[in-house]
Known about the structure:
By secondary structure, the chain is mainly α. The N and C termini lie far apart (about 40 Å). The mean pLDDT is about 90.
Amino acid sequence: MFKFTMMRVRSKISYHAFKKRKTISEFILGAILKEYNCLTRHGSIPQIAPYSKNLMKKFEIFLND
């Protein structure tokens, strides 16, 4: 049963990445960045390090390339 569940989750992630025309790695990293930004903006978690806006912009450009 666990193998079937894992296969379902993996195929769902693959499908959503395919719909957005991204690789699975890009899709997962983009989701992590989006949630991190949301949680730090609302004050739910502290910021890990003082990242500059320029550095975050470069990271987003790196993800979108």
